[in-house]
């Protein structure tokens, strides 16, 4: 009988008290014994730490200290992980009910491939599907599950990028270990994070295009065009919300 592998779920947060408790509850309510839950707080000055302490008995590891940004915090989470697999969810993300057990039941116990999943955006009925064509796969961070051992070999998140180090890592990981798609959404995320807030649109565009071409993206493809359109779209949406 195949034994399920443990998955480390990592949440990084800074002043995220508005949504943090809902995200924590969505992990706790999975009622899955194969989860290791890690929270890396960047030294929040709102009520985030109080919320974390409230659920301390359900959290495998947490810390509140200053860091050098979101990807530095994620790397700290990787260092503390002991699961076979790693999944990152934002402080305002919500796990879909019972989704982790379903995922682990579908996964091969020893896979090294990047697991690509659809994600729910703002609503569990609105799904976004990944494009896993190599050499440059395009998928949401909340739709990526990494093998921990392979992730450490790749080198985790680079401090070279401010907005899209996750895209860079997924390209490098997929090129080395391959990608496997599973039709099993596990996370719902809200637009407005670092890559969808509309902030730093020019920086976002430059990073996306650079990562695309440095990872052997093809000029004779329409895929790279989205790396211009997407940041501009989020930028316009941000202006309209004001």
Secondary structure: number of strands: 11
* Shape estimate: globular
Which structural category do the helix and sheet elements fall into?
Answer: alpha/beta
What sequence of helices (H) and strands (E) makes up the elements? EHEHEHEEHEEEEHHEEHH
Number of folding domains?
1
Distance between the termini: 56 Å
CATH topology: Spore Coat Polysaccharide Biosynthesis Protein SpsA, Chain A
Number of helices: 8
Pick out the low-confidence regions: none
CATH class: Alpha Beta
CATH superfamily: Spore Coat Polysaccharide Biosynthesis Protein SpsA, Chain A
User: How much strand content do the residues show?
Assistant: 15-25%
Largest sheet, in brief, is: 7 strands, mixed
Computed Rg: 17 Å
Give the strand order, joined by hyphens, for the main sheet. Answer: 3-2-1-4-9-6-10
Question: Could you characterize what this model shows?
Answer:
The protein has 242 residues and is α/β, with parallel strands linked by helices. 36% of the residues lie in helices and 17% in strands. It has helices spanning 17-28, 48-54, 70-80, 99-106, 148-154, 165-177, 201-214, 226-241; strands at residues 7-13, 35-41, 61-64, 85-88, 94-95, 114-116, 119-121, 127-128, 144-147, 179-181, 187-189. Helix 1 runs parallel beside helix 2 (48-54) and helix 7 (201-214) packs antiparallel against helix 8. The longest helix is centred in the C-terminal third of the chain and has 16 residues, at 226-241. The N and C termini lie far apart (56 Å).
